[in-house]
Amino acid sequence: MSLATSRKDFPILTKHDLVYLDTAASSLTPQSVIDKMTEYYTDYPVNVHRGVYKLSYRATETYTKARENIARFINADFEETIFTRGASSALNLVALVYGRETLKPGDEIIVSELEHHSHVLPWQQVAKKTGATLIYVPLNKDGRITIENFKSVLTNQTKVVALTYISNVMGYITPLETIIRLAHEKGAIVSVDAAQAAPHMQIDVKKLDCDFLAFSGHKMFGPTGIGILYGKRALLDQMEPLEYGGDMNDNVDKFKGDWKDSPYKFETGTPPIAEAIGLSEAINYLETFGFDAIITHEHTLKTTAVKALESIDGVTVYNPSAETGIINFNLDGVHPHDVVSFFDEDHIALRAGHHCAQLLIKWLNVPATLRATFYIYNTEDDVKTFIDSVKRARAFFTDIGF
Ligand code: 7TS
Fold first, then answer.
1. Whose CA is nearest to atom 20 of ligand 1?
2. Pairing of β 227-231 and β 326-331
3. Distance between CA 309 and CA 331 in Å, rounded?
4. For 290-399, CATH number?
5. What is the DSSP string of 248-278?
6. Quick one: pLDDT band at residue 326, thresholds 50, 70, 90?
7. Is the CB of residue 118 below 6 angstroms from any atom belonging to ligand 1?
8. 195 ligand 1 Cβ < 6 A
9. pTM higher than 0.85 for the full model?
10. How far is the CA of 208 from the centre of ligand 1 (A)?
11. What's residue 344's pLDDT?
C-alpha cells in the first residue's frame, strides 16, 4: 500500500483538521484495527481458554492466531511471546523477576540516560533489593550511546544490560547488535526496550540475539492496554511468574499449586483479547507498507523540518542527526509549556515536557523540551503548518522580550 494514500485509513484524520506530531506517545488507529476489535465485541465477545462452546472456540482460536502472528512479526517462537499491559509492564517483568532472582551484591546493571523511566526505575528498585550496582553508559557529545562508550563500562561484573533500541526523545538508534555480542562475551544478558523501534524498523529477535525485548501496541497502530515481552525460552523457563491466579495455573492443592509453561505462566487472569486481536491486525496493516518506506518517509519529513527550524533564529534542535522521525527542540528562553498552546491553536498535536525521560532532560540541562514526531500519515503540508506555527510562536515571544 502507498504511504501517500494512508491518511484516509485513519478516521480521526478524515473527521478533524489535525496535524498529528505525537506518534512517539501513541500512534493513531486505522479503521481496519478498529473493525477487527469491533468484530470481536460484536460477534464473539466471550472469554478464551475456558468455555466449551462454539463462540469460545472462535475467541480462543482468533486470540491464539493473533499471538502466532505477533511472534512471526519479530521472528520469535509462540512460547517466547508474552502478552503484557504494555512496554512498561514487560520491562518491569524482566527486572522484577529475572533481575530479582539472579542478581547479587557486586553485580552490575548497565543502563543509560536515554532510557524511558520504565527501563530505569525497575532496575533502580532491583539494585536496591539485591545490592547490585547501576552503571550508566556515558553518552557522547550528541547524546548517543556508542560502542566505545559502552565498552568503557562493560566489566566482568556486568550481568544485565538494559538499553533502549530507539530513544523516545532523541530518536537515535542504539548500535545494539555489537553491544549484545560484547555483553554476551562477558556472560551478561541484554534487555531491549523496543517501544520506539517496533513501529519503525524490522525486528528479528533471533538475529539481534537479545535476551528480552519489549514493545507496546499503541505506538504501532494497535490498541492501548497491550504490549509484548519477548524472552529467550531458556531464560523464561528458569523464571518464576510475577503474578499468580487463574489461567496461568496447572494443578492447585490446598498449600501449593503449580503453573503452565511460558507464555501462560506470565499471564494470569482474563487476557486482553480484543487488544491482542487488534495488535495482530495493526501488524498486518504496518506490513503492507514495508519498513524501508516507513523510515525513509519519516526521516525525509524530519530532515525537511529540521532544516527549516535551524533557519529560524532562537530555535535549538537537540538531535539534528537522528536517523528516525523524532525532533527534540526548544524556543530559546521560553518554557515549552508556554509554546504548546500556539501549536494547539493551529490544530497541531505535539508533546512538551520531560517525555518520561528525566535523565536525558537533565543531561541536556534544560527544564523540558518540545517533541515532534512523524509517522506514515504525516505529509509535507504538515511540516509546513508546523514550521509556520513555530515562526508565529517565535515572533510572539520575541516581541514580548523572550
Ligand atoms: N519505552 C519507551 C522508549 C517509550 O517511548 C515508552 C512510552 C515506554 C517505554 C513505555 O510504554 P508504555 O506503552 O508502557 O507507556 N513513551 C511515551 C512517550 O514518549 N510519550 O508518551 C509515552
1. 25
2. unpaired
3. 10
4. 3.90.1150.10
5. TEEEE-SS-EEE--TTGGG--SS--HHHHHH
6. very high
7. yes
8. yes
9. yes
10. 21
11. 95
Q: Which atom of ligand 1 is nearest to the CA of 88?
A: 14
CATH 3.60.20.10 corresponds to the domain 33-287: no
Each domain of the chain, given as residue ranges in start order, spans 33-287, 290-399
C-alpha 352/C-alpha 370 separation (Å) is 4
List 356, 359, 360, 372, catalytic entry: 356
What are 293-325's pLDDT values in tens digits? 999 999 999 999 999 999 999 999 999 999 999
Q: Is 226 in the pocket of ligand 1 (CB under 6 A)?
A: no
Q: Is the pLDDT of residue 334 over 80?
A: yes
Q: Is the pLDDT of residue 2 over 80?
A: no
Distance, in Å, from the CA atom of 352 to the CA atom of 187, rounded to the nearest integer, reads 40
Nearest CA to ligand 1 atom 15: 88
Task: List residues bridging with 230 in a β-sheet.
Answer: 81, 213
**Reported confidence tier of residue 228, pLDDT bands at 50, 70, 90:** very high
Please check whether the two domains, 33-287 and 290-399, share a CATH topology.
no
